[in-house]
TrEMBL record:
Pfam families: MDMPI_N. This is Mycothiol-dependent maleylpyruvate isomerase metal-binding domain-containing protein. It comes from the Bacteria. GO terms for molecular function: metal ion binding. Gene3D superfamilies: dinb family like domain (1.20.120.450). Residues 12-136 form the Mycothiol-dependent maleylpyruvate isomerase metal-binding domain.
Length: 200
């Protein structure tokens, strides 16, 4: 992939890097640990995240989507977890490389079904990044949400998340405690219905 393409979708590249780094850091015994995604294990979050990336790719290319429902992941990993994550991220990257940055709309697997290219790529990145965070905190790894990435994703979140809450994709936003200062990552996580101080 050219440097130009990587720069054009820098937020997506950063989110994919976060997901792959975190997945690569999960110990074999940690795949069944609980996560901030209620009722889902680390393995299920990975399956969901990979399925979502494949869903974005399929919406753009018209190719095949995930082999199982991302919202009903089995939790049974039949292959190498990092290979699963890498294949899904690569499918999404390849699909977005065909989309012009200023495209007025592109097909996406989230309501309303079509979004401006920048927002759509941001939605794909948001999904990868937040699930990278879910896996990281569930397995004792550092948060992959850098201040820059969180700032870039917040406008995307405010643009797309409210309709998704009705489908159960995101929990209600959590208000910060009055007078408590918080960083960009914490603000994003709270907006997405996650507690920044979550522990297993």
């Amino acid at each position: 992939m050219s440097d130009e393409t990587m720069t054009r979708w820098s937020v997506l590249e950063a989110a994919h890097e976060a997901l792959l780094t975190v997945v690569g850091g999960v110990a074999e015994e940690d795949w069944k640990r609980p996560t901030p995604c209620e009722r889902w294990t680390v393995a299920q979050v990975l399956q969901h995240a990979a399925g979502d990336q494949l869903g974005f790719a399929a919406s753009i290319t018209g190719g095949p989507g995930p082999s199982e429902d991302p919202f009903a992941p089995s939790g049974e990993l039949t292959g190498a977890p990092l290979a699963l994550a890498r294949e899904a991220a690569e499918a999404a990257r390849t699909a977005w490389a065909t989309v012009a940055q200023d495209a007025p709309e592109v097909a996406v697997p989230v309501p309303p079904g079509r979004l401006p290219a920048r927002v759509g790529a941001g939605a794909c990145a948001l999904d990868a990044a937040v699930h990278a965070w879910d896996i990281a905190v569930a397995t004792g790894q550092p948060s992959p949400l850098t201040p820059w990435l969180a700032r870039e994703l917040m406008p995307v979140a405010t643009a797309i998340v409210e309709p998704l809450r009705a489908y159960g994709a995101y929990a209600p936003a959590i208000e910060a405690e009055e007078g408590a200062g918080e960083d960009d990552a914490a603000a994003l996580l709270r907006y997405l219905g996650r507690r920044p101080d979550w522990t297993a």
